[in-house]
Every structure is written in structure tokens, then in C-alpha cells.
Amino acid sequence: GAVVSQHPSRVICKSGTSVKIECRSLDFQATTMFWYRQFPKQSLMLMATSNEGSKATYEQGVEKDKFLINHASLTLSTLTVTSAHPEDSSFYICSAREHRPLAGGLGDTQYFGPGTRLTVL
Amino acid sequence: QQPVQSPQAVILREGEDAVINCSSSKALYSVHWYRQKHGEAPVFLMILLKGGEQKGHEKISASFNEKKQQSSLYLTASQLSYSGTYFCGTETKTSYDKVIFGPGTSLSVIP
Questions:
Q1: Among candidates A75, A78, A86, which has minimal Cα distance to A120?
Q2: Residue B8 is inside which H or E element, if any?
Q3: I need a surface site. Which of A38, B8, B88, B100 has the fewest CB within 10 A?
């Protein structure tokens, strides 16, 4: 199956600093990438949808100025948590949609990265 | 809108079968099933795109009832490696191109 990588896998930072998380699709082109946040024992909550070359679409309640998303190329999207605070501590997971034109686009499989565990002190 | 999953949790002995259900209040375009082990990212199991579609991977299969707006995941002759949290993700016909995940079903397989 397709491979998605995330970097870093774990980060600990001080309150007030910014943290950048990278998401890469290694062996396929992903026109759409998604960013999720998962708190312990909870489901994955979609934060935003990132399309290459355009602005990200944020879900209701997600602050776009706090969670900056840049989809620079068909294989790379970045999430920057600005001025992080302890309540931002979470497991952040990206996924990339493998675009298969013959499948008509919708319903394409999403492949998840390994996740980044962010701890803000 | 988040799909509903049932049961919330299930404990099985090795070799037993289980069914996990996923339902939505909205018309569905697709249903995605994932398994997540503790501390790891979710792993793709299968995707169902058409009503009536059934798929299988080894002893794990799923069905999609488009009319009832629901899907079921069937685990047959469970193995210890099946333990984890199972999430269904749904893509609705009104908010396509994004997958919203259910709350998850915790499955524990014991010897």
C-alpha cells in the first residue's frame, strides 16, 4: 500500500513556541491531505483539508491562525502549531488521499501517516 | 456529522466472531474501515463504495447497505492480532471529499 511519513514523530516544546509538522506521501501524489487531532481514547477529529496550491479548508471550531497549513507540493503538507499551549498537546495525524482518476476521485483511499505526538509544557 | 458505531467495546476469545456496526443519519457515498493499535496511527482495512458491496481481507469482511445508511464489519475466527480500536469513516453525499470518523469500537481478543 501507499506510504505516508510524518516528521517529527514526537516533539516536546515550551509554551508559546511554534512547532512545524511535516507530512509526506512517499510513493504517490496526493492532491488532498487531511490533518486530524486525536486526544487519548477518542476518535480522530478532522481539523482541516489541504489541497495542493490552494488555501486549506478548516473545520468549524479550528482556528486557522493558530494551525497554519501549507500544501507546498503534491507530496508535502505542513502543519504549524503557532504559540503552542498545554491544551494543544495531542496526537496529530495526517492522511493523504491517493488520487486514482479511474476511480472517479471521490472515495479514494486515505492513507495515514504514523502521527506526531506533541507535548507542550 | 459523526457516524455512530456499536458496540462501544467488545471482548472476544480467540476464534470467536464479532460484528461492528456503523450508521449515519445522512446518505453515504462511501464507508472506510480502519484499525488502530494503541499509540499507533490507524491502518486502512477496506473501503466500500457502492450499496450492497461486500469486501473481505483474510477473515475480515464488510458490507455496505446504502439504503439503511449503514455498514458492518465482520471479524471471523478472531486472532489476538485483531485487538485494537476499529473506526469507521464515512463520506456523505453532501460533504464528499472528506471522511468523518466514528467514535471507535474497542476490540480485545483474549487467549
A1: A86
A2: none
A3: B8
Q: Cα separation of B42 and A114, whole Å?
A: 8
B43-100 confidence digits (pLDDT tens): 888 888 877 676 666 789 999 988 889 999 999 999 999 999 999 999 887 776 788 9
Evaluate if residue B106 carries a pLDDT over 60: yes
Using DSSP, state whether A92 is helix, strand or coil.
strand
pLDDT value of residue A110:
80
What whole-number distance in Å separates Cα of residue B5 and Cα of residue A72? Answer: 36
Residues of chain A short of pLDDT 50, as ranges, are: 104-106
Instruction: Please list every residue in chain B whose beta carbon sits closer than 8 Å to the beta carbon of residue A106.
Output: 29-30, 91, 96-97
CA distance B43 to chain A (A): 7
- Cα(B108)–Cα(B97) distance, rounded to whole angstroms? 32
Give the residue from A24, A42, A58, A110 with the most B CB atoms within 10 Å of its CB, the best one to mutate.
A110
CA distance B101 to B3: 7
Residue ranges in B28-111 assigned as alpha helix (H): none
- From CA B8, how far away is CA A120, in angstroms rounded? 30
Alpha-carbon A76 to chain mean position: 10
pLDDT > 60? residue B20: yes
In angstroms, the CA A96 to CA A114 distance is 12
Alpha carbon distance A47, A52 (integer Å) = 16
